[in-house]
Automatic annotation (TrEMBL):
Transmembrane feature ranges: 12-30, 45-68, 88-109, 115-137
Origin species: Candidatus Pullichristensenella excrementigallinarum
Annotated keywords: Membrane, Transmembrane, Transmembrane helix
Keyword Lipid biosynthesis part of the UniProt annotation: no
Name under which the protein is recorded: DUF2975 domain-containing protein
Signal peptide coordinates: none
Superkingdom classification of source: Bacteria
C-alpha cells in the first residue's frame, strides 16, 4: 500500500486554522481591548489594531486555503505541478503581507508613545518569521517549478 500524506497534512491545516481562529478571532482582540483599557495612550489605536488583526487572520486563512490546494495535488500524486507553484507564490505574497501588517502595528504602537520592550520584541520577531516564511515559500516555489519543468521535458514520474 502506498502511503500518501494528504490526509495528515489536511488535518494539520485544519488544526492550524482552528488555532488561528481562536487567536485572531478571540484572544488577540481580547488582549487589544485589555491593553487599551489599561494603557489609555493605546486607546487611539484600538480600531487600527483590530483591523490589522483581522487582516492578519484573513491572510493566514487564505494561506491555509492555498496549503489545502497543495495537499489536494499531493493526494493526486501531482506534487510537482504548476498549480502548486502558483499556490506557493500566493503563500509567499500573503506571508509578506502579514509581515507588512505586523510592521504597521509596530509603527502604530511606537507612534502612540507606548513603549513595551516585550510587545516590540514580539512584533519584531513575528515580522521576521513571516518574512522568512515568505522567502521559504518562494524558494520552494522555484524548486517545484523546476521539478515540474523537468518532469514535463523528460516525461519522468517525479
Amino acid at each position: 500500500m502506498k502511503r500518501n500524506p494528504e490526509r495528515m497534512l489536511k488535518i494539520a491545516g485544519v488544526i492550524a486554522g482552528l488555532i488561528g481562529l481562536a487567536l485572531g478571532g478571540w484572544y488577540i482582540p481580547m488582549r487589544i481591548g485589555w491593553a487599551c483599557e489599561r494603557y489609555p495612550e493605546l486607546s487611539k489605536i484600538y480600531w487600527p489594531g483590530m483591523i490589522c488583526d483581522g487582516g492578519v487572520l484573513l491572510m493566514c486563512l487564505l494561506a491555509l486555503w492555498q496549503f489545502w490546494k497543495i495537499c489536494t495535488e499531493i493526494g493526486r500524486d501531482n506534487s510537482f505541478s504548476q498549480q502548486n507553484v502558483r499556490a506557493l507564490n500566493i503563500i509567499g505574497w500573503l506571508m509578506l503581507g502579514i509581515a507588512a501588517l505586523l510592521a504597521l502595528c509596530l509603527a502604530m504602537i511606537v507612534g502612540s508613545g507606548f513603549i513595551s520592550l516585550f510587545i516590540i520584541a514580539c512584533l519584531l520577531f513575528w515580522t521576521v518569521v513571516f518574512v522568512l516564511a515568505a522567502m521559504l515559500a518562494t524558494a520552494l516555489s522555484n524548486l517545484v517549478r523546476r521539478a515540474a519543468e523537468t518532469r514535463g521535458e523528460e516525461n519522468l514520474p517525479l
